[in-house]
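Show me any protein, keeping tokens residue-aligned.
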Amino acid sequence: MRLEDELKTSFFDPIIKAQLNILFTGNWLNEQINQFLKPFNISDQQYNVLRILRGQKDQAVNLYSIQERMIHRMSNATRLVEKLRQKKLVERAICNENRRKVEIRITEAGLKLLDEIEPLLRENHTILSNKITKEEAKQISFLLEKLRQ
């Protein structure tokens, strides 16, 4: 659906329309992903933390390292990790060398959950692949990266 129809307004400036379109589409994609993750009882941000930790190959990582890799950088990583810990998907430990530092690592249950989610998520990527070609996806990525430079 066209942005004008969604927001019930017209745009005279294509830059403003592009800005709002990016925000609107980002929120729409986020809603789609959160709906997909709902049955697994995790949010997109919690999923992001689990993926970051899995990428550490069984190495513990501190909160700052998680925070700087998050898609939503303003997320409260401490709260997210605590919720994941309560679900037994991650574990926290005090660093032996620096008692003020907390190290976090993914548990077997966290890895198992990712193994369950990922094949289904790949199938669910049809949200985009049914609407745009791979070439169009490359163009979108190029333009979005250009905006962030």
